[in-house]
Amino acid sequence: MAERIIRIATGLIRDSDGRALLVRKRGTQAFMQPGGKIDAGETALQAVLRELEEELALHLHPKDLVTLGQFSAPAANEPGFGVQADLFAVTRSVSPKIQAEIEEMVWVDPSAPGDIILAPLTRDYVLPLCAALSDEGPMAETDCGDVLTRLQNPS
Q1: Which CATH fold would you assign to the domain 4-152?
Q2: Long-range contacts, stretch 101-105, CB < 8 angstroms, 24+ apart
Q3: I need a surface site. Which of 96, 135, 138, 140 has the fewest CB within 10 A?
Q4: Which residues form the Nudix hydrolase domain (predicted)?
């Protein structure tokens, strides 16, 4: 039986030290980047802007985000499902505040997140991408292409 897919949009938020913001939703164990399901009739960009406002009280504009790509992984909280995630980097400093279904948020070193439970997408794609981008310098669309190619096609 084919895996059922949930389409989501997520945000990679980094601080000035290159740490990534991860959240844990109420009633779950895995930490992941903020975001959520894309509603019917909604673009991925509209969804991530809505989700970041709902979950973290972030009022962002499309120009505050850079598209990093689309990634697939097993869903962290829905057994038998996979997620297809559109990942966007937030390019300005923000002050997130926990709201909605968020139980906890942490800032982690993407190269050494500690002993927290990570969602597969976060563990396998988002944190390695974040670490690679931190090594490459400031966030910009041109930084992402080579890094994404290396992550998606490891030698």
Answers
A1: Nucleoside Triphosphate Pyrophosphohydrolase (3.90.79)
A2: 101/25, 101/26, 101/55, 102/23, 102/24, 102/25, 102/26, 102/34, 102/55, 102/56, 103/24, 103/25, 103/26, 103/27, 103/28, 104/23, 104/24, 104/31, 105/21, 105/22, 105/23, 105/24, 105/56
A3: 138
A4: 3-131
